Amino acid sequence: MSYRRLLAVVEAEQLGTKKTGAAPFNHKRTELFNALEVYFPHFQSFLTFPGPQPEDRAQVSAEDVRLPNSLSTALSTQDSQIVLKLSDDFNLNELYCASLFDSARQEWNLQGRGPLEILRLSAGLWFTERRALISSLVLLIQAAMDDEWDPDLAVEIHLYIERLLNAGLRTRLITLIKELNEEGPSGLGGHGVEPYVVDSSGAIVLRRNVVHKERLSLSHCLLLMCSAFRISLLLPFSSVER
């Protein structure tokens, strides 16, 4: 699942609607609705990723992994060490990190790059995907509020966001904001964690700065929700939010 692909679908519908006004139902809209249903569980469990597993770590350590929907993939000793470091730095499942590494290998030319740079590229790709899901949610909430969108589409998106709120999205966002403010692999990093990542433009940036921007975007989501949705969907506060 690529969150960047989802973002492209949402942006395409937004651009088409604002250019043409209340556009008729078309293939882009069909693609949007299909994508929203496919990604509903991903919005519901917002930015929840699989954690480490001893059996998966053993598979990566053995330098031979089987990724979802792919054949067995051989890793070099250096590749294996990069994948395990990525897992340790972000508290991510080892096979998931192997797929991140494989995606980085397809997206960037890794020939001649050192292990530290490859680690930063893989981590940066993970943050890029995260940012795409956050941006998609922001655009959808704005669509439910924006009178420049087709009114029928805005209503459908409003109902979609309500489903997510009823499924606990607000609580998940607040929990995530708190987690991202903590030291450690699931948050800002901490002792022994690589402090830099490479972003989509190829620039080296501090992990902490990327995380702070994420928290700001998530806070923006909550603010938009408070403006766009009835209070009964945002209450009651759970114990984790107090």
What's the gist of this structure?
The chain has 242 residues and is mostly helical.
Order of helices and strands: HHHHEEHHHHHEEHH
Distance between the termini: 33 Å
The count of domains is 1
Which regions contain 5 or more consecutive residues with pLDDT less than 50?
Answer: 236-242
Number of helices: 11
Would you give an account of this structure?
The protein is mostly helical and 242 residues long. The chain has 11 helices and 4 strands, in the order H-H-H-H-E-E-H-H-H-H-H-E-E-H-H. The chain has a two-stranded antiparallel sheet. Strands 3-4 form a two-stranded antiparallel ribbon. Helix 5 (77-90) crosses helix 7 (115-145), helix 7 runs parallel beside helix 10 (207-228) and helix 9 packs antiparallel against helix 10 (207-228). The model is unreliable at 236-242 (pLDDT under 50).
Helix and strand topology:
Elements: H1 3-20, H2 27-38, H3 40-44, H4 54-61, E1 64-66, E2 72-74, H5 77-90, H6 94-107, H7 115-145, H8 151-166, H9 169-180, E3 196-198, E4 204-206, H10 207-228, H11 231-234
Antiparallel strand pairs: 1-2, 3-4
Helix pairs in contact: 1-2, 1-7, 5-6, 5-7, 6-7, 7-8, 7-10, 9-10
